[in-house]
């Protein structure tokens, strides 16, 4: 099978109009597909309304018991089920899943090394049999950022990591492409110029771009993550804006495509 | 297939120890099975902590937009996913589902007749193909009280009605038993005596018991509902305490069994 794993971020989820627009695009996206989402901004807002303040260390959420309850409610409940209902209205046979459902994603609680992140999970294993069966049966999994340890504990997990884990695990038996939708049009040469997109990056280009400081800070973990996925067998990784997803699917110029192999055109 | 639909109420869900005990029993319950739950008490508590007060008319929750968000978070998120994780730890391959997931249960927004219940759904259609496929594939659906209208709207639905709808729909092709766990040991002759359980009720007995005012008030809609399910092909309906569920499964005396046919022993 040719499978696309598509991850959307808070910049889409938190705006009803943008979300509707994205879901319409997603419904038209060709082939087998899995949607992955988190929803941190909405979780923070709900938490605050209940007196639970978000605690972040290096941009990562510390997940105590109350915070775990909130992200479980917001990711697996509110956001996931509303997306599924909207996709069903678009004739997409979506099925919302957290990692515990059908044991789709097993993780382990992150060991305490200096910082105790609390109930945060690092992905250990993906149930690719179930995912493949669902896709073959015409179901479209909509996967949120809650996983479990198979010992009865839910764990808050980074949605990018879930998308990567699904992609690399399924890549063992299938041709998998991974799409990260974020708040920029792609990897930019000039951060201030939204249109200065680098269309294609491979490892050699990446090294050069890092050396010249064109790529730095927040973009580095995203690209490291992308290359790790490529090394584990993912066909290509795409980074760009949700609204350009269909162009990307059609192979048209939009966003940044990350590939392992060297291209002659460079 | 022989399928058991088991519905648990707030008196189990709201007490962690009771819930763990129940899930352990459920894991041992033989054969194909589907678990159905709501969680009204917990939803009220979370709503209140967010400043959304529950509004009840004749024991039914009025579901405005905020309340719908809360029940979606609590039923489909917090309660459902924690139960699934706990069942997975017990080696039950549970999969949490609301009615929107895989279009399992389609409902329509209740028409306004005097009272506007808001975003409340009445069940219209059950995707028995999907439910049967999941059961055959070894998955155990854990179904919560959120459904959808297939036009993108989630709807709050009575969990007893969901259990009945699943049972009657599946009864067309399968042998289905329906178990309602509630806060009493069964239908009682004397409300003040927990052990005065009526073991078996059929329609003739029911008429007599109503005439003699042994069965009245809150028990009548439960039993009407049970007989409706029997008329639609359900094999038998059981009402009792969650802790006696395994006895019921083994055909031992516990709770009240409701059957359509007349028995000679009466």
Report on this model:
- 2 copies of one chain form a homodimer.
- Chain A has 266 residues and is an alpha/beta fold.
- Chain A has 2 domains: 2-181, Acetylglutamate kinase-like (Carbamate kinase); 184-266, no CATH class.
- Chain A has helices at residues 10-13, 16-28, 40-49, 65-89, 128-136, 159-170, 203-211, 219-231, 245-249; strands at residues 2-8, 32-37, 56-57, 60-61, 94-97, 105-109, 121-126, 140-144, 146-148, 154-156, 175-181, 200-201, 236-240, 256-258.
- In chain A, the strands form 4 sheets. An 8-stranded mixed beta sheet of chain A has the order 5-8-2-1-11-13-14-12, with helices on both faces.
- In chain A, a hairpin with a 2-residue loop joins strand 3 and strand 4.
- In chain A, helix 3 (40-49) packs across helix 4 and helix 6 packs parallel to helix 8.
- Chain A is globular and about 45 Å long.
- The model of chain A has no long low-confidence stretch (mean pLDDT 93).
- The interface between A and B is large, with 40 and 40 residues.
């Amino acid at each position: 099978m040719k499978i696309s794993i598509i991850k959307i971020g808070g910049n889409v989820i938190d705006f009803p109009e943008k979300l509707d627009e994205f879901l319409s695009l997603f419904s038209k996206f060709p082939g087998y597909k899995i949607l992955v989402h988190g929803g941190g901004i909405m979780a923070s807002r709900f938490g605050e309304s209940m007196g639970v303040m978000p605690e972040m260390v290096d941009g990562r959420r510390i997940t105590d018991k109350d915070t775990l309850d909130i992200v479980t409610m917001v990711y697996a409940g509110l956001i996931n089920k509303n997306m599924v209902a909207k996709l069903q209205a678009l004739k997409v046979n979506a099925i919302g899943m957290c990692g515990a459902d059908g044991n789709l994603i097993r993780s382990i609680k992150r060991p305490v090394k200096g910082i105790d992140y609390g109930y945060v999970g690092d992905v250990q294993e993906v149930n690719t049999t179930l995912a493949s069966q669902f896709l073959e049966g015409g179901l479209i999994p909509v996967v949120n950022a809650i996983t479990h340890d198979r010992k009865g504990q839910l764990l808050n997990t980074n949605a990018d990591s879930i998308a990567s884990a699904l992609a690399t695990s399924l890549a063992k038996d299938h041709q998998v492409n991974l799409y990260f939708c974020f708040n920029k049009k792609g990897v930019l040469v000039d951060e201030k110029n939204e249109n200065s997109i680098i269309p294609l990056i491979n490892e050699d280009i990446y090294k050069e771009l890092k050396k010249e400081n064109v790529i730095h800070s927040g973009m580095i973990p995203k690209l490291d993550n992308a290359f790790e996925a490529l090394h584990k067998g993912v066909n290509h990784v795409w980074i760009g804006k949700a609204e350009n997803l269909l162009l990307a699917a059609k192979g048209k110029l939009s966003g940044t495509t990350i590939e392992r192999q060297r291209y002659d055109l460079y």
